[in-house]
Amino acid sequence: xxxxxxxxxxxxxxxxxxxxxxxxxxxxxxxxxxxxxxxxxxxxxxxxxxxxxxxxxxxxxxxxxxxxxxxxxxxxxxxxxxxxxxxxxxxxxxxxxxxxxxxxxxxxxxxxxxxxxxxxxxxxxxxxxxxxxxxxxxxxxxxxxxxxxxxxxxxxxxxxxxxxxxxxxxxxxxxxxxxxxxxxxxxxxxxxxxxxxxxxxxxxxxxxxxxxxxxxxxxxxxxxxxxxxxxxxxxxxx
Length: 238
Ligand SMILES: [Zn+2]
What we know:
Elements: H1 3-81, H2 87-167, H3 173-185, E1 191-195, E2 198-199, H4 208-216, E3 221-222, E4 229-232
């Protein structure tokens, strides 16, 4: 096989490694991103539960203050009962008292509901927090592992690129351009071997006249079916 063709197969092997490496990098980045999203969801969830509890406590205290106010009102009305002078005044006061008592019952119901919610959340939060923290730690650990292998992939990719840059000047620019175009068009396979008279790119028989030209190795021979550059697998340099 001609030296140039051999270099092209080297370049193709390298390019396929580069492509695989890029795929892995993309996958890793995606997995890192997924973990970051999950971590922030866990944090948000925990924070929202904590906020919910704070809000309930605030509401509960407000309702307790309302009960105090209502109790004051009732005590005041109790005093007023001793000062009423007419039956009408007494009836009006009585009506007002039962109205305030109704208000108090409503507040008490609301308060009870709030206290139940508060107790539920107070009991739930510590274990929820522990669970969330554990999940977060696990995700953090996974993220660190992924970041460190992503770094390895990045440096591997840089080494591949360095190798590529060393290889490129050894190739004829026209041939290189052909190779690049073919790679784009032909599933990243521009140079393929013939094996048992068959093109390994498209699995179609190569005419004997072409095989003869390939074996002589004086020129670049293209598959008549798929246009890929052909080389003789058995003559491949190691
Ligand atoms: Zn072919």
